[in-house]
């Protein structure tokens, strides 16, 4: 379990690194390299937007997995330590806010892709990844019964 | 059954319950990042799958939509 969580934390950390570089090649016709019906590009391929969205999807999955794990096992985890729920409760509103902000910024970027818009998305992604790290740290450091 | 043994079993069950979600995260990450790691072409299908996944996540958090229960702050257990 701890190995898996460590791998996930590493993956989330790598997302941050990936969003700082621009190495992907996008096949034309995909959502991040749109073309018209005859295959002519309708917008420039946007590998950084792909990387940011991939980082967001991963960070979301990591957070959602931890929050659902806590909800599904609430009574047991409360018995281990009330701090687990309290810590996760302290980030739940921030997670919702970050996701809503990401949605608004993403809609705006899709309507008008600008460097500033992309930077805004990256900043919200960084915040989301910090929340993912906080959530995963709670589960990775679970106390054992009796401790 | 002794309380310590019961607690240990409950602990293992809780961890097992979390495993599929955590493995699913790993699989998703692999799909989206493999091409980047290996410098390969990111196919239309992978792009469209990621775009659809992000769209479906964001749809859950639109204003006026009831949040998924795991994202809600609920009262502490008694």
Architecture overview:
The complex is a heterodimer of chains A (147) and B (78). With 147 residues, chain A is an all-alpha fold. Chain A has helices spanning 2-19, 47-72, 74-80, 82-111, 115-140; one strand spanning 25-26. The longest helix of chain A is centred in the middle third of the chain and has 30 residues, at 82-111. With 78 residues, chain B is mainly alpha-helical. Chain B is built from two helices and one strand. The longest helix of chain B is centred in the N-terminal third of the chain and has 36 residues, at 3-38. The mean pLDDT of chain B is 75. The interface between A and B is large, with 62 and 51 residues.
Beta-strand portion of chain A reads under 5%
Class per helix and strand makeup of chain A: mainly alpha
Can you tell me the residue ranges of chain A where pLDDT is under 50 for at least 5 consecutive residues?
15-22
Give a count of the beta strands of chain B, DSSP E runs of length 2 or more.
1
Task: Determine the mean pLDDT of chain B.
Answer: 75
The chain-level mean pLDDT of chain A equals 86
Structural class of chain B: mainly alpha
Distance between the termini of chain A: 19 Å
Kindly report the greatest chain-chain contact and the residue count on each side: A-B, 62 and 51 residues
H/E element sequence of chain A: HEHHHH
Helical segment count of chain A: 5
């Amino acid at each position: 379990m701890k190995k898996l969580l460590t791998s996930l934390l590493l993956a989330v950390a790598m997302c941050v690194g990936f969003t700082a570089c621009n190495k992907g090649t996008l096949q034309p016709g995909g959502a991040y390299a749109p073309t018209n019906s005859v295959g002519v590009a309708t917008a420039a391929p946007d590998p950084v937007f792909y990387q940011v969205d991939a980082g967001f999807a991963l960070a979301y999955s990591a957070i959602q997995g931890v929050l659902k794990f806590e909800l599904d096992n609430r009574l047991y985890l409360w018995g281990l330590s009330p701090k687990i729920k309290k810590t996760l409760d302290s980030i739940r509103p921030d997670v919702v806010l970050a996701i809503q902000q990401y949605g608004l910024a993403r809609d705006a970027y899709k309507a008008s892709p600008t460097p500033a818009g992309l930077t805004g998305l990256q900043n919200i992604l960084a915040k989301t990844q910090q929340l993912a790290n906080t959530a995963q740290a709670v589960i990775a450091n679970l106390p054992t019964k009796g401790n | 059954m002794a309380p310590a043994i019961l607690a240990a079993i409950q602990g293992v069950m809780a961890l097992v319950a979390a495993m599929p979600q955590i493995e699913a995260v790993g699989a998703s990450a692999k799909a989206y990042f493999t091409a980047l790691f290996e410098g390969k072409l990111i196919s239309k299908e992978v792009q469209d799958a990621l775009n659809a996944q992000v769209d479906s996540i964001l749809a859950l958090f639109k204003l006026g939509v009831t949040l998924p229960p795991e994202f809600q702050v609920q009262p502490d257990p008694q």
